[in-house]
Design brief:
Layout: H1 5-15, E1 19-24, E2 30-36, H2 48-56, E3 60-61, E4 69-70, H3 72-77
Antiparallel strand pairs: 1-2, 3-4
Length: 87
Amino acid sequence: MNISRHEQRALHVLALGGCIRHQRDDGPKVTAVACITREGMILADFDLATFGRLRRKRLIESRSGGPYRISKRGRMSVRAQLDNQGA
């Protein structure tokens, strides 16, 4: 499966415990999204287009109207990256 660099970055954040907060305006259509790391930082290059591609490929999922998290398929698709947190 072809996954772009921006999609990989978002999946990596989600795999480390982050989430995607979404906002709707009077209907079912999502109008704004923000990818948030587990530390509370916001991923700068995440937009509605990237969100739509991840959803279409079923790499993320939402349960009971909550924030979007990585799905099992997404966990299997994400490539390993070094964690930038110094140990």
